[in-house]
Model the fold of this input.
Amino acid sequence: MDWITLLRSLQSDFIHRLATGCLLHCEVEGQHSELTIISGERLKTLRDFCWLMAEKYKRLSPVRDVFINNLKGKLGEEVVKERLADLITEIDYEKRFGGDGKSDFTLTAQPSIGVEVKSRHGRIDRVRWSISSEEVEKNAVVVCILIQEEVNEAQSEYHLFLAGFLPTKMIKLKTGRISFGIDQLLYGGGLACYLQQFPTEQIHSNQVVLFESDFDVSGVNFTGKVSADQNLSKNASHTFIPDDESTLKLPIHQAEVYYQQGLICEQKSDYLGAIANYDQTININPNHGKVYHKRGWCYYQLGDYEAAIADYDQAIRINPHVALNYLHRADARSLMGDNQGAIEDYTEAIKINPDYALSNTNSNIARYLLTNQQKFNQAIKLNPHDAVAYKNRADARYDLGDYEGAIADYTQVIKINPHYIDAYKNRADARYDLEDYEGAIADYTQVIKINPHYIDAYYQRGQTFLAMGEQQRSLTDYQKAADLYWRAGKLSEYNDVRQKILDLEIAASIDILNF
Done:
C-alpha cells in the first residue's frame, strides 16, 4: 500500500469521527492533534493584530471584512504553528508589506519552500477550500483548517480542526483556481512527516492527476485548455481558448469573444469551461466588470464560495451600483456562515433595486429583510417618531447578528424616548457583543438608574466588568443580582450567579496567597 492510499484511508476514518465528535486532541506543541481550541488571551492577541490589519487596509475593503478575513486566516495559522512547531517559520509581515506573498510559512530547513494555510467555516459535507495557480507554484503543500464556529467580532472561543492537506505536486493547475472538499484531502497526521521528507519524496506520475479523476471536468483539464481526446463537435465552445502566451498578444476586442464563449459554456452548465473563458477575458481586459460577476456565479455553482465572493468584490469595486452583485455575494456569504455580511449585502441590494431583490432571492435572511424589515421601514417612514417601530427593527437586527444596525436603531429609540428602558438594556447587550465594554456599562448603569430592581442589568454589568478584568466590581454586581434573584424566587438564576461569585472569591484568595 502506497502512502497516499494510506492517508486517504485515514482521512475517511477522520471524517467519520469528525461527524460524531470523536477526535484526537493533544495540547502539546509539535505533536499531532485533530482539534485545537483557541480562546482567552491567545485569541485577544490575534484579534488585536487583525484590527491593526483592518485599519491598515481599510481603504481597500470595508474594515469589518478585512478584520474577519484576517482573523479567519490567523486562526488557521495558529493551528499549523502549534502542530508543526520548529519545522516552519512565520512570514515577517513587516518585511512583506501588503501581505504574505501567497505563502503563510516557509520550511525552517529550506526557506524557499512555502506552506499555504486555508481556513474555512461550514458544514463538513459542503465546505470547500480553494487555491490559485500562483499559490500552487509557490508552496509545497496547502493545509486546510475547518473552523467550527462562525468567525465574528464577538466569538469567545474557537474549535479548529486540522481538516487535511494536499501536496501541490498533486494539483494540476496552470491558470485560474480550483476548489476541493474535505474528502479529497490527505489525513493531517501525515503532514509533518511529508514536510520532513521534502523534497526527497517524489510522487509517481500515475498519482499526480488527483483532480481529473475526482471531478467531472467535461473534457477540460485544469490548465484551462482543451484535452486532446475531447469531442470538439460536442463542446465547440472551448475551441477559443489559446495558450497563455498568445493571450497577451490579442487585441482588446478579443476579450468580448471569450466573454461570449463563457456565456455559452455557462448556459450548458459547463462552469469549468466558462471559467476558463472568463479567465482569458480578464487576462486581456482586467476592468471588464460583468465578467467578474459571471465568473463569480460559476464558482458559486461549483461550491467555491470564497472564490465567488472574491469575484463579486472585484465587480463591486468596478461598479458599486449593481444590485445583483450584492445579492449574489450575500448568498455566498450566507452559505459560508457570514450572516452579518449577508445581511449587509442584502440590505444594499434592496436599497439599489428593491423590486429586483424581491423577485430574485429565496434566502431566509433576504425573506426576513423583505418582509419584516420592509414592514418596519414602512412604519418608520409613515411616522419617523415611532419608537416602537425602531425598537422592533432593532430587535430583529440584533437577532440576526447585525449588532451595529441594532445599536443605531436603539439609539434612535432613546432619542425619541429617553426613558425607554429596554432600548438601553438591549443596546448594552449589542455593545457587549461588539466588545464595546465601556459603552455597555454606561447603558447597563442607565437601566439601573431608571429601575434599581432590574436584575438582569446587574448580572450583565457584572459580566462586562469581568470581561474587562475588574473582578471586584464584577463581584459587587453579581452579589446584588444574586440577592434580587433570591427575592424574586428565580432559583436557577440564583444558583448560576452564586457559582460565579464562588469562582471569583476562590480566584481572589489564590491571588492573595500567591502575592
